[in-house]
Amino acid sequence: MLFHFRHQFPQLNAYWDKYLPFQQRLEIPPKTTLLEEGKRSQHYIYIEKGLIRAFFNKNGEDITMQFFFENEGLSSFDSFINNTPSPITIETIEPSVVYLLAKEHVNQLLEDLSHEQDFVQMILRMTVQRQTHYINEFVSFIRDTPEQRYQNLVKERPHIIQRVPQHFIASYLGVSKVHLSRIKAKLAKGKSHF
């Protein structure tokens, strides 16, 4: 939401420094739950190192919605802003270093930022960028086949293919691990003909 846009908005660096004492730095192993589905989100999470996924449970099966990497931030935003139960679980995949900023300090940070000259434009750009990403994901899930979605990952976000375990990628694509193996074998076979 905020600090992972520091490279685009250098003026955020001063706020990072100011709010660093209020951030809880955690070095945590894989499979650490940072927010559980059904609980209320009370922290903004910034990833210094590692890999995190957001997922929900459907009839006992985890459905992965999104992956987050270094220098990205996240929360269950509806839950965070509206104080409602989170529809997702947030969990580490790799050993990770994260910073947690409590809701009260996020609100104070936003109040501080509101005095910045380009605050509204900055928030709009952040929101549009995130919204565009999610809309593209949603459209792709409806329009594209799992094979096309996998090819898009390979082409546009190869870091996911390189770092995320296969069963999470399968869940993210909405297919079984066996189906994902078939997709990969078919694509590898197609390449070998050239």
From TrEMBL:
Protein biosynthesis found in the keyword field: no
Organism domain of life: Bacteria
Any one GO MF annotation of this record: kinase activity
Membrane-crossing residue ranges in chain numbering: none
Keywords from the UniProt entry: Kinase, Transferase
UniProt domain Cyclic nucleotide-binding: residue ranges: 28-110
Protein name, entry field: Crp/Fnr family transcriptional regulator
The organism of origin for this protein: Chitinophaga sancti
